[in-house]
Amino acid sequence: MNIVITGASRGIGYHTALELAKDPANRVIALSRNTAALDVLRSNAPHGNIYIFPADLATSTVADLEAILAPCEEVDVLINNAGVLMNKPFAMTDMGMWQRTFEANLFGTVKMVQAAIPLMQKSAVAHIVNIGSMGGVQGTSKFPGLAAYSASKAAIANLTECLAEELKPLNIKVNCLALGAVNTEMLNEAFPGYQAPVGAEEMARMVAHFCLHNHRFMNGKIVPVSTSTP
Ligand SMILES: NC(=O)c1ccc[n+]([C@@H]2O[C@H](COP(=O)([O-])OP(=O)(O)OC[C@H]3O[C@@H](n4cnc5c(N)ncnc54)[C@H](OP(=O)(O)O)[C@@H]3O)[C@@H](O)[C@H]2O)c1
């Protein structure tokens, strides 16, 4: 399978890329901004099957992303995992911060999907998985300081439902994993000292399995991945 994953330089994306690369039949195309970290990822690929591409999703155009994907004859799985979290009281946020959040979390995903559609419609098992957040799900617990982040993830959830409907004729399935807290650099930077009940490697195994198999069972679903209620 040809699998494209964004935000693969660290955290959940890094471990998901490695998990998917355990199968020598998979080719993992990994994007993020940090070239040095991507080099480490590539060097840890068990079968030399991770291909890295430095790209800033906030500033890349759809044409830039199409050029990265062009060598693939087809794309089977696209995992829109890249994201940023800025923890700031709403009253102190400025439009630049909202812009940076939505550029990375929402518009980056929009551009990746647009670039990948022509290659995904050739696949018999096409699956787009958007990595959302419990904070972007209606009726869940909300936390001060996360308005921009949570709003961007709510948009990702809604985009998932819309794309699932629109891409049905192309036989491309689209689902969203709304993750709860995971121990990663992102979480540690935003909430120093907070310990989540699950680590990045463990969550990556779940994400990888979902991406490979669950297109058969669901489409347009926002799947909460959390042990907390609500
Ligand atoms: N950790 C949690 O508790 C948690 C909970 C719910 C949802 N999530 C979601 O899960 C996903 C992964 O989170 P994580 O905790 O693993 O975060 P992380 O450790 O901060 O990793 C985020 C990844 O996104 C990439 N990225 C950020 N901005 C980018 C941009 N403009 N262009 C390209 N790549 C960009 C980063 O790479 P570069 O810096 O190299 O570009 C990095 O590889 C995110 O979408 C996050 O919102 C996480």
TrEMBL record:
The keyword Oxidoreductase applies. Signal peptide: none annotated. Keywords: Oxidoreductase. Gene3D superfamilies: NAD(P)-binding Rossmann-like Domain. The keyword Oxidoreductase applies. Belongs to the short-chain dehydrogenases/reductases (SDR) family. PANTHER family: DEHYDROGENASE/REDUCTASE SDR FAMILY MEMBER 7B, DEHYDROGENASE_REDUCTASE SDR FAMILY MEMBER 7B. This is SDR family oxidoreductase.
